[in-house]
Write a structure and sequence with these properties.
single chain, 226 residues, mainly alpha, Serine Threonine Protein Phosphatase 5, Tetratricopeptide repeat, 77% helix
């Protein structure tokens, strides 16, 4: 009953009341995973990160070998810049599922956050080897290569991501950014036009994206992102 009440309150944005409902459900049954998940979601929406992590720890304790639980904790840790902790969780995930490409993608992102770019590239190379049909793997690898100023290689990876998911504007947008770093105005604008057609939200992104700053005063860029 309290879990259902919490869900309803959460949907209408009454977060504090939703949290109380989920907490009551947990008090009645400390092993109620739906109640724990509800509390985690509310705490994340309230930006109560430390509380969310404590709840995730409680959730993990109920099933310590569930990679989804560890992955959620790692995502939260990385989101708040706790990359060292996120890297430890990455080690745990790879221990549980050594052949899952998504764990190496996450590891690459964490290593980028730590400034360990060479190690990040190794992780992404592992990811693309394990799952060459993962657009996320190729896209993230492109990001690492761009940081290394290996722009031609980065574009090649972007091309693979776009080919695998041509209707996902995010991958097209990222390729536009790499083209911009290479100084290729025409291809940057062409890809940006495609990305905006797929998702108009990229207009706002582009106006603030430092990768595109050389085009801020370009008339076509302004028209495209207005």
């Amino acid at each position: 009953m309290y879990v259902d009440k919490g869900r309803t309150l959460f949907k209408v944005g009454r977060l504090e009341e939703a949290l109380k409902a989920f907490e009551t459900a947990s008090e009645i049954d400390p092993t109620n995973e739906e109640a724990i998940n509800g509390q985690i979601n509310v705490c994340l929406d309230l930006n109560r990160t430390n509380d969310a992590i404590q709840l995730v720890d409680k959730w993990i304790a109920l099933k310590p070998d569930d990679p989804a639980r560890w992955q959620l904790k790692g995502t939260i840790e990385a989101a708040v810049g706790r990359y060292a902790d996120a890297l430890k969780i990455s080690d745990k995930l790879i221990q549980i599922q050594p052949n899952e490409a998504r764990h190496y993608i996450s590891r690459g992102q964490v290593l980028m956050g730590l400034g360990r770019i060479d190690d990040a590239l190794k992780a992404l190379e592992k990811a693309t080897a394990l799952d060459p049909k993962s657009p996320d793997a190729w896209n993230t690898k492109a990001g690492v290569l761009a940081l290394m100023k290996k722009l031609d290689e980065a574009i090649a990876c972007c091309n693979k991501a776009v080919a695998l998911a041509p209707k996902q504007g995010y991958y097209v947008y990222n390729r536009a950014c790499v083209y911009a770093l290479r100084g290729d105005r025409s291809k940057t604008l062409a890809d940006l036009k495609k990305a905006v057609a797929l998702d108009p939200g990229f207009k706002a992104w582009a106006r603030k994206d430092q990768n595109l700053m050389e085009l801020y005063n370009d008339k076509e860029f302004k028209k495209l992102t207005e």
